[in-house]
Amino acid sequence: MSFLASLFGGGKSEATDDRDLKAFASEEVFKHKTADDCWLLIEGKVYDVTKYLDEHPGGSEIMVDAAGKDATEDFKDIGHSDSAKKAMAPYLIGHVG
What's the DSSP call for residue 7? Predict the structure, then answer.
């Protein structure tokens, strides 16, 4: 079963500098771990994937299971393509810092 397979879609470009993004404490990010409010922390960046859950090919449960913790290793273990990584941009809301 793939984790975050074919992750995200959309068009806005990702901010290149963390100073352009809202800073969140990890404790705040980890509170958003339900199907109604799902944020993922990947490589220090915070993504609100709530609206993507129903479209995820592996099902929403695998993404909800990754919320509430640092999902970086889970994301990397799958070996996502560069295009999948770039497609995450529309869901980027901040960084941990």
Answer: -
In angstroms, the CA 40 to CA 46 distance is 6
Closest CA to 1 of 71, 57, 53: 57
Could you say which DSSP state residue 44 is in? T
Contact 18, 97 (CB under 8 A): yes
| Per-residue pLDDT reduced to its tens digit, 44-94 | 999 999 999 988 877 899 899 999 999 999 888 877 778 778 878 999 999
Of all helices (H) and strands (E), which one includes residue 83? helix 82-86
Q: What is the pTM of this model?
A: 0.79
**What is the H or E stretch that residue 45 is in?**
strand 45-48
Backbone φ, ψ for residue 31 (5° rounding): -75, -20
